Amino acid sequence: SIHPADSEQQQAAVLSGADQDGFNWGYDPVHFGVPEGSYATNPDGHTRVFEFRQMVQALHKQGWRVVLDVVYNHVFASGPHNKYSVMDKVVPGYYQRRHEDGAICESTCCNNTATENAMCERLVVDDIVHWAKNYKIDGFRFDIMGHMMLSTLNKMRARLNELTPEKDGVDGRAIYIYGEAWDFGEIVDNARGYNCGQMNLSGTRLGSFNDRLRDGALGGGPFAPHDFQGLVTGLALAPNLSTNQGDDKEQAQGLRVLSDWTRFSLAGNLRQYKMQTATGEVLAGQDVKAHGLPLAYGGNPCEAINFIGCHDNMTIFDFITEKASLTVMREERVRMQVLCLALLALSQGLPFFHAGDDLLRSKSLDRDSYNSGDWFNSMDWTGSTHKLGVGLPVATKNAAHWHYKRPLLTNPLIKPTQENLLNTAACMRQLLQIRYSSPLFRLPSAQAICNQMHFHNTGPTQTLGVVVYEIVSAPANTGAWTDIDGTDVEAVFDPEYKRIVVVFNASPIDQEMPFPPQASGLQLHPLQAAAGAPDARAASCVVDEVARVLHVPSRTAAVFVQRWA
Q: How far apart are CA 197 and CA 150, in angstroms?
């Protein structure tokens, strides 16, 4: 840009045409069951249908599965006169959720739908089956899923389960459903019926975004002060100038608490999983509090979508930019992001990566870029450019925060280089390879996680900023092992590794962590130890078999393995 990194000119130009340009996130449904037309060569007629089916077919041929982002919680327009109003013209007042005074609820943004009404529910359920059968969609991601009734999703799940390859050309049981299970607005606390909020989903096998990992790693949350820190961003160990999180003692205890949030998320966000917590008590995840609610709320690992960044709010790197101490320079900020990627890749449940996480994606600190155009949203897949400092983010969502964003956008010491971007991408590829190097990183049930995964360095005397877990293989490929009480419990066998130990050292200094009591013969994972491995710090880890300690550099995730004898 010809304008300075903190100029208002770029965002002014974007906003001047924001409502007329071709950029849109696509959350303005007019009617369900129809592919978005803006991507078609001709939006009118059957072309959009034909080309969408061609796209899905081509992706399947390449080995990809296709997840469709669906918006059933609202429609773009209502009333008798708007040309974009459809359902409200069919049966006026029926398909839109209303307040007691008759006004349409708009907590999702606008024109909320009433899936608690029988025919609205049937429309949504029938439509999902239509997408599965006629477009061969492999999964559905529900926008603001919490605003839908759980009965609706249960009926949907049952209908999908009836689909078979022989009869329908698709295996409905393999279709995954997940979404945003936020509980707010007129449906909060089940005010309109038992909804799809986080607290209601245990045992349903419906996936939901787990914000506990995001808030534990980064600190705060999207509505907390911008400079709140967490495990990865430096709370207590590399504090910024904020006084929002208390004195040294309070920050240290806060770090222990947020480390627990991270641990329970790594264990699949299971309400029944037990560990020693920051207070010293051994508690189940459902008995620990986060934001006034149970910290862990899931009943199965498939219900946990672990994420740290997504399209809403800022990118991971932009969060790090605002939260990390100004004494933390470029290289260490990159290390923070790699650590976030490791927390995701090495967690039980389903890891969710935002597009561009591997390239340290920035939107120039834009907290809500849905209408910020390509200038702030585009990505350079070559890594030769970076969006931090391409102007102040759009005023409509960010003007109140420009005063602290300006100096960050103009600071040349924190903007990543192309080398940083490409190395981070290589580190992420390595982390994904590690995840798939052992079935122990993808345990299929709550019972297996509770029996095979254990945390060390916990409680009030823990080494701050370090999270350690151990996963132990079942002794043989039987699908079970005998517990201490003599009962057979579900377990997963890894034919290559008897034990895996993972150390997340989020502290700014190197750490020595003791072997787990039963461990021996530990070695750095061969992918991390290989010549030319992208994460040089991880490659420098040392296993001291005599002293029984693991040397792990600062801001590094290290994976150690014990092979079968």
A: 8
